[in-house]
Amino acid sequence: MLHPTPTVRLALIGNPNTGKTTLFNACTGMRQRSANYPGVTVEIHSGRLQKGPQSRHIELLDLPGSYTLSARSADEAFVLEAMLSIRPELRLDGVICVVDASNLARNLFLVSQVLDLHIPTVVALTMVDVAKCSGAAVNASALSRELGVPVIEVNPRTGLGLDQLATAMLELPTQSTDSHAAPAPPLQLGLQAQRLASMFVQFEGRPAMQRAAAVHSILNPDTAMERLLLDGLDESVRTAVVLSRSCLTDADLSISSMEAAYRYAWIDRIVARVLARTPKQRKSRSEAVDRLLTHPILGLIPLTVLMAVCFQAVFSWSAPFMDVIDGSIAGLGNFLGRFLPQGALRSLAVDGAVAGVGAVLVFLPQIIVLFFFIAVIEDCGYLARAVVLLDRWMERIGLSGRAFLPLLSSFACAVPGILSTRVMETRRDRLVTMLIAPLMSCSARLPVYVLFISAFVPDRRILGGLFSLQGATLWAMYSIGAVVAIPVAWLLKRTMLRGESPSLLLELPTYKWPSLRTILVRVYLQGREFITSAGTVIFAVTVLIWALGYYPRPASVGVEFDRQRSALPALSHASTPVEIQLRDAQIAAISAHESGAYLRQSFLGRFGGWVEPLVKPLGWDWRIGTAVIASFPAREVVIATMGTIYNLGAETDATSDSLRSALQAASWPDGKKIFTLPVALSVMVFFALCCQCGATLAAIYRESGSWIWPALTFTYMTTLAYVAAWATYETGLWLLGGA
Amino acid sequence: MLTTMKTGESNTIGLVVGECAAAKRLSDMGFVRGARLTMIRPGAPCIVRVDGSLLALGGAYQNRIRFEHPVV
Prior knowledge:
The complex is a heterodimer. By secondary structure, chain A is α/β, with parallel strands linked by helices. Chain A has 32 helices and twelve strands. Chain B has helices spanning 20-28, 59-62; strands at residues 10-16, 36-41, 46-50, 53-57, 65-67.
C-alpha cells in the first residue's frame, strides 16, 4: 500500500436516522473495519475515503448517532470522547456533521455544540428530497453563510454531492475555525464558564474547548459527560463547578433547560432565514401505516407475523446453504484425512480443527439471514415501532423496549446480542439484558434439539392433527429460555440491579424503502466478524477439547484392537465383493470401538467418570455427562463429541442416521436403554438453559469490564439448567413411567 | 397535561420540569418553550409529533412536559 498510515482522521457525527451510515458506506465502500481502541467497548467502523488518489490519506470514523453531546449511554460517551479528542490515539482532524434537512432545527442543535469546539467542520445536508416533499426547501448556501462552515447537499443513494463532499473533506484539516458561528451562552452562564475555563487543564492551549468543557460540566450534573470532563482533575474543580451551578439556580435559571433555550433561540433565527416553507398539509403515508403498526393491541399482530416469518426464514432459507457448508467441511476432512499420515496430526486436523470450526461455520447462513432481517426492519424504520410496542410489556419485568433488539439478535447468537446492548442508557439495564440474553435459544442449540427430537420424540399429530408433536417440542424448547428469562430479569431488577429504568425516549423515523447497499454492508461486516471469531476463539477451544479427548493414549488399548483386527480372516484374490464389504465393515466397527476405548482412557473420559454421580439424577450416563462437559466452551461441539463417544467416527452431524440409531441403541450395563423420552427431554432442557458458550462469557466480560457478571451468568444458568433438567426427568418418569 | 391529551390535540410547550438529566435530554431534543406538540397516540409510551419529528415518550417523560396554556 502506498500510504500505510492515514495522515488525517475525520469523523462522521449526526443524529440517528439521518442517513449517516449510508453516507459512510458510500464514502468508504467495503474497505472498512471495526475500529478497536484499547478500553473502547463501543463498536465504531472506520474506513478509508474512496474518492481520488489523495483521499487514501483520509481515515473516516462512523461515530454512533446522537442527538446531543450531553452523553448518557456508552455510545454517546464515546462520541463525546472523540469530539474532545480525549484519547491521543483518537485525535480528530475534522468532523463531518450529517444534518437531516427534513428535521433541520433539531439537527442543528448538535451542530451548534460541535461548532463551539472549534474543530474544522463541514456540514453534509441529507434528506433534502424528503424535506421538499413535506414542503420545506433548505437554502444550503444561506445555511453555509449562517454557520460559517461549508454546507454540501448530498444524497448517498444517488451519489449526488459526494465528489464535492470529498473535496471539502480534503480541505478540512487546513480550515480556519475563526469563521465558525456559534450561539453565545446567556450572560450568567458565560461569566461562570469564563471563570472555570482555565481549570480544565487537559484542554490546555485550546481555549474554545476549555470554555465548552466549562459550560457542559456546569449544565450536566451526574451524567457520563460530567464524569468524563472532571476525570483526573483536582477536587477543587468539582467544587467550583457545583458553586457555579448554585449561582445559576439562585438567579432562577434552570440548569436543565438553559442550553436548549439559548441554542434553539439561535437556531430558530437561522432556520427562519434558510428555510422556505410552502404550506402543504398532506397526510403522509407514513402516518396512515402507523395507525395500524403502532396500535398497542392490533400492532402486535403484524409484529408477531413478522417475527414468525423471520424465524421461518432463519431455519428454512438457510438450510440448503448449511448443507453445502456441511458437505464441503466433510469433504475437506476426508481430503486431509487421505493426505495426512495416521496419528495425532491427522486427528488434530480432521477431528479437532476442521470438525470443530466446521461445526460453527455451519451456522453462518442462519446468522446472515437473521442479520439481513434485522438490517431490513431497522433500515425501513419499523424497528423503532417494535421497540415502542414492546416497551409496555417489557416495562412490567423492569426492562425497557430497547432490550428488544439485543434479545432478538440473541436468537441467532448471544454475542452480537450482547454487543448491541450499547444503545441502552443505564448500566443496570444493560447488565440485566446481557445476563438474560444467553437464555434466548441461539442457533447453536438447534442441532441438539433436532438430533434428540428426531430420535426420541414420536412422530405424531396432536390437537386434531393440527400440529406435529415433534414441531411442538421444538417450539417448546425455543420458548423455554424466553419464558425463564422473564422471572430472571424480574428478580435481577429487584435484587442486585435494583433501580428505575429510564423511560423510553425514541424517535420514530419516517418509513422508507430500505437501502440494499446499507443492508448488504451490514450483513457482510457482521458475517465477517462471526467468521473471525470462529477462526480464533472457537478454534482454540476446539483444539483444547480435542487434546483432552485424545491424550493420553495408552499403548495397551491399541495392542488389544490390533489383536482383534489380525484375528479377522484374511482376504484372498477369490474373495467376493460381499466378503470384502463385510470385512471392511468389521474393521470399521473395531476402529470405532477403538476410538471409544481411547476416549474412555482420555482426560476427558476420566473426567466423565468423576461426573457420573453428578449427572445420574438427570438420567444421564457418563457418556452424556462427558459430552455435556466437553461442550461447555462451545455447545455446538456436543454433537461431534457424542459421535466420538458413542463409538462412531467424528463425521457426525445432527441428522446423521448413524448417530441417531447409536443413541437409540445405547444401553446401561444392565441392558436397559439409556435414552428414554424423559432422558432426551432432560438433555434438551439442560441445553436450552445452560450457558455453554465461552464466546458469550467473553463478550459479557468485555462489555461489563468485570469478571463478576460472566461468573454470575455462568453460575445461575448452569444451576437453573441442572435443576430444570432434573425436574424434567423426574416429571417425565412420573408421567411416562420411564418408558 | 400530556397524559390527558387525546389523539390529534395540539398544544405549545411551556416548560420541561424535573430531574436534571432527563429534563435536559428532552430539552436538547427539541422539547423547548414555544415548540408545538401534537398527540398522535396517547398511552405509555405515547407518540407525539414535535416540529416535524415523531417521538415516543415513556411515562416518566410525559409528566415533565408543561404547556404554556394548560387546558382545564
